[in-house]
């Protein structure tokens, strides 16, 4: 499973009853004498790295118990992918992501346009009714006036 151009993940089932302390994975390139043996303890899966693209491999697994190794599993054959196969899939994914981003940006642009339109309507309504309005000045809001100021101190002046 998870075949790529340079790696593959293999997994296996274990029969009940035996005490297993590890596994031995044999990897061989088909039509070649190259043979690799790895020991992978406790796990029931293994990732094979540094594989050649578009190459046929044969895999066998053996369990390692207290009294030695079991018989090897039946031979499993697989072929790694081409690097171009992997690139094509990622391009499709990138195209899908770009489409999603464009749709989201268009939705945000529509929301902003609606907000600006509503803001202009509110602003126009407010400015047409508020042109003649004059804000009342507060005498007590400045420190120069004796009736209050920023510190709200009471100052009395005799006249």
Automatic annotation (TrEMBL):
Record's subcellular location: Membrane; Secreted
Keywords: Glycoprotein, Membrane, Secreted, Transmembrane, Transmembrane helix
Gene Ontology CC terms, in alphabetical order: extracellular region; plasma membrane
Membrane topology: Single-pass membrane protein
This protein's name: Fibronectin type III domain containing 4
Residues that span the membrane, as ranges: 98-116
Residues annotated as domain Fibronectin type-III: 1-83
PROSITE patterns registered for this protein in UniProt: FN3
């Amino acid at each position: 499973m998870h075949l790529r151009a340079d790696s593959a993940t293999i997994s296996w089932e274990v029969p009940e009853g035996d005490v297993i302390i590890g596994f031995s994975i044999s990897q061989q390139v088909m039509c070649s004498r190259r043979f690799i043996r790895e020991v992978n303890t406790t796990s029931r899966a293994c990732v094979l790295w540094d594989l050649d693209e578009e190459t046929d491999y044969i895999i066998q697994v053996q369990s390692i118990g207290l009294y030695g190794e079991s018989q090897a599993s039946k031979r499993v054959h697989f072929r790694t992918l081409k690097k171009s196969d992997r690139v094509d899939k990622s391009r499709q994914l990138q195209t899908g992501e770009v489409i999603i981003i464009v749709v989201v940006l268009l939705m945000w642009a529509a929301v902003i346009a609606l907000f600006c339109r509503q803001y202009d309507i509110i602003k126009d309504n407010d400015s047409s009714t508020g042109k003649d309005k004059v804000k009342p000045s507060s005498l007590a809001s400045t420190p120069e006036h004796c009736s209050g100021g920023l510190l709200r101190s009471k100052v009395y002046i005799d006249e």
